[in-house]
Amino acid sequence: MPRYVSLTETANLLATVGRVLVIGCSGGGKTTFSAKIAESFGLEFQSLDRDVRWLPGWVERDPREQREIIADMVHRSRWVMDGSGASSFDIRLPQTDLVLWVRVPRRVALLGLLKRVSRFYGSVRPAMADGCPEPLPDREFLSYIWNFEKKYAPIFIKQIERYGPNVPVAVLHSHREMDRLLQLASQPHARKGG
């Protein structure tokens, strides 16, 4: 079982650690959340979609090359990495100080996707690779979101247990919890570890 931590413990950790992994279902708000963390705590913002996976025209980079890029990224000293690709957890988790799992309900993720598409359709959103304009979601992508908890969450748990059994994991079930975490972690007492 992953080493789950409370919101208060997470706030204290977030204020002091250097390497934060943000995972979760698409549409849940993890990219926006990651960018806020990076800005609030002076961490390098790394996006798997923008920096690793995609080349212009929605061409997926070779998997071996993706792993090489990730291996370089995780050895940097201060980062927040946005991305849920479980196939690279073996590289990322051992170098991570804290996992933030954005685990919002399905309806929230679908609504988040709808908002994202309505805002960015046809243009490249900030955390996406150049030349990859926001498309309309296809059936496969909607199915990923719809089935995330049943099909993918168990894989995440197994991978965390295998590659990061001692890494603290905070599960955030709502945007309100994400905002509360940032608020708590930004308070002076959190930075002192108390």
TrEMBL record:
InterPro entries found in the cross-reference section: Cytidylate_Kinase-2, P-loop_NTPase
Gene3D superfamilies xref list: P-loop containing nucleotide triphosphate hydrolases (3.40.50.300)
Segments crossing the lipid bilayer: none
PANTHER family in alphabetical order: TOXIN (PTHR37816:SF1), YALI0E33011P (PTHR37816)
This protein's name: AAA family ATPase
